[in-house]
Amino acid sequence: MGRFCSPVPFDPLCSDQGIHLRMQQQQQQQTSQPLRVLITGASSGIGRGLAQWYAHRGHTVGALARRQDLLEELAAAHSNVVPLIADVCDAEQTEQAVSRFALEAGGLDVAYANAGVGQRTREEGWDADRAELIAQVNVVGATNTICAATSIMLEQGRGHLVGISSLAGHCPLPDAAAYGASKAWLVFYLRSLAMDLGPCGIRCTVVMPGYVSTQMVDGTGVELLTPQARRAADRIAQGVARGQETIRFPRRVSLLTRLAGLTPASLRASMQRRRLHKRATSRSQGR
Ligand SMILES: NC(=O)c1ccc[n+]([C@@H]2O[C@H](COP(=O)([O-])OP(=O)(O)OC[C@H]3O[C@@H](n4cnc5c(N)ncnc54)[C@H](OP(=O)(O)O)[C@@H]3O)[C@@H](O)[C@H]2O)c1
């Protein structure tokens, strides 16, 4: 299979009614039949929560990540979890892992591009390597996953792509330039793909969580106030089963970030200046 997705076939018989019916059938299938679900970044956090959610309900799960020990632990607890050791930044490894899973499981119904890294780009220096790593995993890695899954789904004539973006993709946030940009990219990519792939029976969902208590936010102080990975996974998987195009949570944080996205850049800059001033003052006072 090639590195790139096959071109979307033009089918004049794909009427709006036909597409709607196919999508409805797919949704019914998602709630009643055992599914073949691929999840990247399944060794920890939200991805692991999702793998457990599907495995508990009898679905076959392809759990992809780099940490073999954690994936094997997951597979030992659930006989319907297939560990797939791969680095999503490597297109060939990702494609091979996704194809192997689809072959072994007999198809691919849902694919989650979840693997991601989230480091602050400001506090720890203006490090180009850091920004590049974020772009590699969150942008290139997600593309590799989505392209590998799309090739299989196009052959099947159905499937569901899910991208785990973030509420940080809604509006520019301080200290998160590369992360926010990488997540905004995923939103745009999947929403555009939805137009190209919808007529071929492939559905796309964008997930935009606020903070979730995982390794990604460990030590930031927000982990105590945020939902656990399992709760987040439950919210995501239920929304995906309902066929939601966008899943945002928690509701209040989602509303706030959307409002923040509408505020003028000058106001955001002045709020940030005040924040930095406050931080510098408390540092100089030793607090
Ligand atoms: N936690 C939050 O507050 C939050 C909020 C919004 C969105 N998100 C998004 O949710 C997703 C999951 O994050 P999380 O919070 O669950 O963090 P996490 O616990 O750190 O999990 C990240 C996962 O990504 C995998 N991963 C990282 N680089 C990889 C690579 N090159 N190849 C394959 N797998 C790789 C890791 O597995 P290995 O290290 O084993 O490879 C791990 O399983 C991310 O896309 C993140 O941006 C998180």
What does this structure look like?
With 287 residues, the protein is of the alpha/beta class. The chain has a single domain (16-284), classed as NAD(P)-binding Rossmann-like Domain (Rossmann fold). Helices cover 52% and strands 13% of the residues. The chain has nine helices and seven strands, in the order αβαβαβαβαβαβαβαα. The chain has a seven-stranded parallel beta sheet with strand order 3-2-1-4-5-6-7, sandwiched between helices. Strand 5, helix 6 and strand 6 form a beta-alpha-beta unit. Helix 2 (45-56) crosses helix 7 (229-241) and helix 4 (91-105) runs parallel beside helix 5. The protein is globular, with a radius of gyration of 20 Å. The mean pLDDT is 87. The site of NADP nicotinamide-adenine-dinucleotide phosphate (NAP) has 30 residues, from helix 2 and helix 5.
* Separation of the first and last Cα atoms: 57 Å
CATH superfamily: NAD(P)-binding Rossmann-like Domain
| Tally of DSSP β-strands | 7
Strand order of the largest sheet: 3-2-1-4-5-6-7
Number of domains: 1
Q: Could you tell me the strand content as a percent range?
A: 5-15%
Principal-axis shape: globular
Main CATH class: Alpha Beta
> Could you spell the SSE succession in H and E letters?
HEHEHEHEHEHEHEHH
Question: Would you identify the CATH architecture?
Answer: 3-Layer(aba) Sandwich
Q: What is the CATH topology classification name?
A: Rossmann fold
Given the structure, what is the number of helices?
Answer: 9
Task: Kindly report the average pLDDT value.
Answer: 87
Largest sheet: 7 strands, parallel
Roughly what percent helix?
40-55%
What ions, cofactors and ligands are bound? Answer: NADP nicotinamide-adenine-dinucleotide phosphate
Given as residue ranges, the uncertain stretches (5+ residues, pLDDT < 50) are none
